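Structure (tokenized):
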């Protein structure tokens, strides 16, 4: 045998993801709060509350999973903003110089999430070489991680 292999399917609730996103918002960011709601068919609805001006209601943003990470070469999840081009352009201008969480970048209507950087900010980057597959999907109420990992025999 060539070592151990494991597969797991891990649902992460909307509430837990929302809390993790808010905890990762850097000081001074234009975003004060994010409420995430996973929907079926790889879609995510966000309600984003800006820090200023405080009188604005939460802004709804629709996301679709666009591209899965491919391991080991490209550990990046790409989401597509499913809004009008004008809203996407306005959001990109507003966030262009804003501090984003480590590993997250925005380019046009795409949001790129670098899994390696996310793990590194939590001192977990050593796990990435063990992952052979990582897919992110959604169902109502949860984002679902499907992963495979392998430990090679020494």
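Design, position by position:
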């Amino acid at each position: 045998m060539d070592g151990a292999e494991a597969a797991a399917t891990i649902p992460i609730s909307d509430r837990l993801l929302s809390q993790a996103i808010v905890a990762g918002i850097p000081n001074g960011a234009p975003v004060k709060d994010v409420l995430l709601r996973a929907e079926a068919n790889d879609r995510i609805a966000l309600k984003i509350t800006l820090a200023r001006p405080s009188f604005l209601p939460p802004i709804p943003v629709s996301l679709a999973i666009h591209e899965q990470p491919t391991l080991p070469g490209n550990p990046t999840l790409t989401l597509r903003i499913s809004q009008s081009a004008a809203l996407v352009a306005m959001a990109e201008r507003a966030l262009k110089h804003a501090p984003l969480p480590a590993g997250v970048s925005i380019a046009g209507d795409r949001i790129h999430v670098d899994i390696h950087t996310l793990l590194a900010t939590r001192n977990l980057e050593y796990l990435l070489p063990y992952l052979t597959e990582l897919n992110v999907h959604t169902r109502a109420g949860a984002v679902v991680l499907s992963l495979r990992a392998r430990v090679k025999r020494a």
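Reviewer-requested clarification: The CA atoms of residues 64 and 110 lie 10 Å apart. The two ends are 12 Å apart (CA to CA).
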